[in-house]
Specification:
Layout lengths: L15 E12 L6 E12 L3 E5 L6 H8 L7 E6 L2 E2 L5 H11 E4 L11 H12 L6 H10 L15 H13 L5 E5 L7 H16 L4 E5 L3 H4 L4 E6 L2 E7 L6 H16 L6
Parallel strand pairs: 3-8, 3-9, 6-7, 7-8
Antiparallel strand pairs: 1-2, 1-4, 4-5, 9-10
This protein binds adenosine-5'-diphosphate and magnesium ion (MG).
């Protein structure tokens, strides 16, 4: 369940992989104030697979950046695996993120001059343990169906393959949490479904905690639960119907967003 507590409580929830406690993040574009995240509290249980949906500009990417420690919130606390990311120095946050959080973006962000294998090993190079990663690299390439693609550069790979390389890179140091921002946004629907299947297997078979931002109902269908954001707030959440009906999921989502935007829910 999503808990929207009004109290600031210290994190002692050992079952939570991710926790936001009354987080607010403001931007000041051109002198205006944008509340990208507005007093959001949220707990994501270890080993769960959740999707975040919301209209464009509702704060989804900002929420992921704050969870990853890429952006420091203006108010509130962020806990990842029980550690307070907001109290870390930038250097501590960088090292913590590299070891504990895998990040996947819509733009694959691969280095064009490096092969798939070299791209995947980049975080291990930064960590200074690339030489120990041989076995994990092979098993990731195998699991992601990339064995025959390891020596190719990104421009020789399909979009789906590039995203799988990006996922392998995110997983090479064995993080327990994977955060993905519109990971299927740049690939066709078949490749998108393959990516979702992979994320589900990382959760089910390998116990990872997966949080995926998407606006595609066919992607959210793979999660256990959908959290809905609008105007920087969590406006609701619902379990995913195991029947796999994307139209029903889209209807539930649009009902929630529509009711808030038309003012039927009083904040
Ligand atoms: N670096 C930034 N500077 C100014 N405004 C920003 C910045 N990042 C995000 N915003 C604003 O914060 C709001 C939420 O943005 P974002 O998290 O990217 O939404 P989403 O990912 O749901 O589309 C938007 O109004 C956006 O314009
Ligand atoms: Mg976004």
């Amino acid at each position: 369940m999503i808990e929207q507590s009004r109290e600031v409580t210290p994190s002692n929830d050992q079952s939570a992989a991710l926790e936001l406690v009354r987080v607010t993040m403001l931007f000041f574009p051109g002198g205006a104030v944008v509340e990208a995240i507005n007093d959001v509290s949220l707990r994501i249980a270890r080993g769960s697979f959740k999707a975040i949906m919301g209209p464009s500009g509702s704060g989804k990417s900002t929420l992921l950046h704050v969870l990853a420690g890429l952006t420091r919130p203006d108010q509130g606390q962020v806990f990842v695996e029980g550690r307070d990311v907001t109290s870390m120095t930038d250097h501590q946050a960088t090292v913590f993120r590299r070891r504990n959080i895998g990040l996947v973006f819509q733009a694959f962000n691969l280095i064009p001059t490096l092969t798939a294998r070299e791209n995947i090993l980049l975080p291990a190079l930064a960590e200074g343990n690339a030489h120990e990663m041989g076995q994990r690299l092979e098993s990731l390439l195998d699991h992601l169906g990339l064995q025959h693609r390891g020596r190719h550069r990104p421009d020789a790979l399909s979009g789906g393959e590039q995203q799988r390389v990006a996922i392998a890179r995110a997983m090479i140091l064995g993080p327990t949490v994977l955060l993905a921002d519109e990971p299927t946004g740049s690939v066709d629907s078949a490749a998108g479904q393959a990516i979702c299947r992979l994320l589900q297997s990382l959760c089910r078979d390998h116990g990872r905690t997966i949080l995926v931002v998407t606006h595609e109902p066919t992607v959210a269908l793979w999660a256990e639960r959908v959290i809905v954001l609008a105007d920087g707030r969590i406006i609701g959440d619902f379990p995913v119907d195991q029947s796999g009906d994307a139209h029903r999921l889209a209807a539930l989502y649009h009902d929630l967003v529509g009711s808030v935007l038309s003012g039927r829910i009083v904040k």
